[in-house]
Write a structure and sequence with these properties.
7 helices, about 20% helix, elongated
Length: about 250
């Protein structure tokens, strides 16, 4: 398969894609004996002789890896970031730097994220027709009415297309009363459990805004039947064979 050199080096565990770019630019990579310094260069890892610092890359890539990460807020779901922000790969030890995130969680959201180097597995999970359910714990401003919750459950038109039906239930209501400048000020917020079977960009935040209850915090607690359970923020673990099979519908 013909791919960009950065991707090949990342998949073989040599370096992250960002690090691979620097290796190429500094002339440390050669293909079939020719030094390469252009980032757009492509190669076939099955038949081309790719060398790093003169040492040939093994033809066979490392075995497939499947990780579950509890992503912190303030971290981007990319392999590298032009703005220099911390990425999910920065959280992982070096032996796992050749995996990549399956789908996204935005910068200000936390929770369950799967990372892998298995392209077929990643494509399966991200394909819309498979409707992989994802569970979220979401704090929103104020207290949504029953009618608002029903709208959310049934689906609303978002950017010209109706969202699929969702499971939305109230988990907790918090009301605080404080005195500010001799006036009583009351604030309220509601914790919702939301289960989606589609993954449109920033969907929960956009729907909540449209319904008049902006998101205060968002945490993904599960992907299909794979729950974070006691996995702490910033920690990761390998998925079991049974968990991988369950995600693939086996």
């Amino acid at each position: 398969m013909i791919e960009r050199l950065q991707k090949i080096l990342s998949r073989h565990g040599v370096a992250s894609r960002r690090e691979a770019e620097q290796m190429i630019l500094s002339g440390r990579i050669s293909v079939n004996g020719r030094q390469v310094k252009e980032l757009g260069t492509k190669a076939n890892s099955d038949c081309d002789r790719i060398a790093v610092d003169g040492k040939l890359l093994q033809t066979q890539a490392p075995e497939f890896l499947y990780l579950l990460l509890n992503k912190p807020t303030g971290v981007v779901c990319t392999c590298d970031d032009p703005q220099g922000r911390r990425t999910v790969l920065d959280i992982l030890p070096s032996q796992y730097r050749h995996v990549y995130p399956v789908g996204r969680l935005d910068y200000n959201s936390s929770g369950a994220l799967i990372l892998t180097n298995d392209g077929a597995f990643a494509n399966y999970l991200m394909h819309p027709r498979h409707h992989i359910a994802k569970t979220y714990e979401v704090w929103v401003k104020d207290i949504p009415s029953l009618q608002t919750l029903q709208q959310w459950q049934q689906g609303i038109v978002l950017e010209g297309k109706r969202t699929l039906p969702a499971i939305v239930s109230v988990q907790q209501i918090s009301e605080n009363t404080s005195a500010q400048t001799h006036q009583t000020h009351q604030t309220s917020r509601t914790k919702l459990k939301i289960v989606l079977s589609e993954g449109r960009n920033r969907q929960i935040r956009k729907v909540a805004e449209l319904l008049g209850h902006p998101v205060l915090s968002l945490h993904r607690s599960a992907i299909a039947s794979i729950s974070l359970a006691s996995l702490r923020i910033g920690a990761y673990r390998l998925l079991s064979k049974q968990e991988i099979q369950s995600l693939m519908g086996d």
